[in-house]
Amino acid sequence: MWWGGRGHSFNIAPQKDNPELGLSAPKSIQGSGMPEPRRNQLGSCLTSGCLSGEQILAWAPGIRKGLEPELPGTLICTNLRVTFQPCGWQRSQDTPLSSEYDFALVNIGQIEAVSGLSRVQLLRPGSLLKFIPEEILIHGRDFRLLRVGFEAGGLKPQAFQVTMAIVKAKAQSSQGQQYAGIILSKAGQSSASRNPPIPLLETSEDWETERKKQGARDWRVSTVNERFDLATSLSRYFWVPKRTLDSEVRRTFGHFHQSRGPRLSWHHPAGSDLLRSGGFCTASDPNKEDIRAVESMLQAGHSDVVLVDTMDELPSLADVQLAHSKLRTLCQPDSSAAEDKWLSVLEGTRWLDYIRSCLRKASDITVLVTSRVRSVVLQEHSDRDFNGLLSSLVQLLSAPEARTLLGFQSLVQREWVAAGHPFLTRFGETTASEEVCTSLPTFQFPSSQAPVFLLFLDCVWQLLQQFPAEFEFSEFFLLALHDSVRVPDTLTFLRDTPWERGKQSGQSNSYTKVYTPGYCQLPAGDSINPQLSVWNWSLRYSNEQRLQFHNPGYDPESCPDSWLPRQQSSFTVPGPPSSVWLFSRGALTPLNQLCPWRDSSSMLAISSRWFPRPAISSESMADQEWGLPSHWGACPLPAGLLLPRCLGPQIKLWKRCYLRGRPEIQMGLLAPTISGLQDELAHLQELLRKWTPRINNS
């Protein structure tokens, strides 16, 4: 497993008949060597290590396998999670949720029961276990594996009961049940519910502070969506040009898909602006004043405007979902792929190809943003998936402050959470036959499901491997964020829109919701504490674990206070007035106008001369310094800019994440602590001592 830990415990209650789950209590455990269980003390406060409404359904003593050394303890199934409690482990008051031992029911992807060497049963909803299991394997959707062997003798009924309890509890959770919520006692308010270290961007003051931090003097905070009556998928506040009135914003946004009009995503210190917007609603009929307002917002005060076709050369949502499912199947310990074919099967998943595509396109956009003062507009039909991915990567490549721990958390909060990425829909349940269907090339997942955010985190991990001294956060922080999307204890990743989060927290009870097709209705019955955020890491991670979030190889000098002058002469060479370009397929194409309604022509149907991509192995405009119009002049790229390598083996598999179910591979992946490195060194020296005689004799 990832981290070791000691310090929390459940007090196990005697198992009772549970008619709802169809379970019956096992025989007495007296004489089994287990201590007589005490009364269940699950409470309603985090400080006692409990969750509100949590009930223990079944438990059984066992040994957690796949670890060195194996851990004896107790496997516990509740109505919210499955947890393995090692002997002597007690649940901390400050860390009520365990990042290492807890499996949320919604995180469970597959359950297998094993008896002997040949009897294996895959347990689906409604399955009846056909034998007393000797082992149970729980495969997490986050690539973790919980493998527990049960003791023989009089405890066999408990092994059967806890296995069936997990299957039935999982089936109930797939019907929309989440954690009932976390209620904090007064004793826990100071630690678990303290304000997160980053602004959640739920107030206009937060947005104004962030605007000043970026130095976006020509922008202002708009309150036109304060009551969510413009768009429920947008945040209550966002940035628009200073001279644009809110009445113009309202009219202009109506000409974009789901009213997601052009908004500032990031202001480059040298003067460029990175915007994001939804696709044009070509069926709308704007008047001349609306067209002028749309063009003004897209230009954002710049003479040069580049519209970026976001989805060009990037995978579809269905492609991402299929690739991720194939990757999870391949990385399971019992994968059928032969060792000599494993790498070719990995390439066949296309997951690494999609990472290359995202990094290549982000590099090209970064050059567009940094090589001259201009407006660069990311345009995606929904503006809720790859716009956030590319915008985030561009900022990581361009701005050293985004590579700090707090800066990266702020980036995710702004570009993903506040911008309305549909986390709940994208991480929706998959079918029980998913693992079988992924081997069929014609199989299609629902288009609404796709782990785009996890694809982004993998892209960030690739950057961390290529530029290890440029990032303050470590691989383990990315791993914690990766796992957090499967732990439904906060509103951060548990809703699709800012409106849903505001509705749940009581902030928008008096607001009017506009109908937008495709939105999930707010689940009823949830009582999740609105004050908790995923950034409250103390809920699931101990102090020792949180120290590992910091990259020991980080060079603070790579993030100076003033890393780039506010103005550079080479960045301000004026071009022809109102130069409009389309960036697609790695090439810049001149456009006659910004809006598709002029002359009744579609934006992408405008006839123009395409610039072919040169046949150079770097495959990136950023590497070639190619494709910029001549009147833009020679613009040297600034210091501090990261341009990743995207060829072949330069894109690697994130082994510590995807191969967590194979602990033998984890050894040698560079432990995060000095003691861990010493253990790995001792292990390698021992292997060398054992193998040296064999090599010499051969």
From TrEMBL:
Q: Which PROSITE patterns match?
A: PPASE_MYOTUBULARIN
Instruction: Give me the Gene Ontology terms describing cellular component.
Output: cytoplasm; membrane
Q: Where is this region: Disordered?
A: 1-38
Its BP terms in the Gene Ontology are:
phosphatidylinositol dephosphorylation
User: Can you tell which superkingdom this protein's organism belongs to?
Assistant: Eukaryota
Myotubularin phosphatase domain: which residues? 201-658
| InterPro entries in alphabetical order | MTMR12-like_C, Myotubularin, Myotubularin-like_Pase_dom, Prot-tyrosine_phosphatase-like
Query: What family is this protein classified in?
Result: Belongs to the protein-tyrosine phosphatase family. Non-receptor class myotubularin subfamily.
Name under which the protein is recorded: Myotubularin-related protein 11 isoform X1
Which species? Erinaceus europaeus (Western European hedgehog)
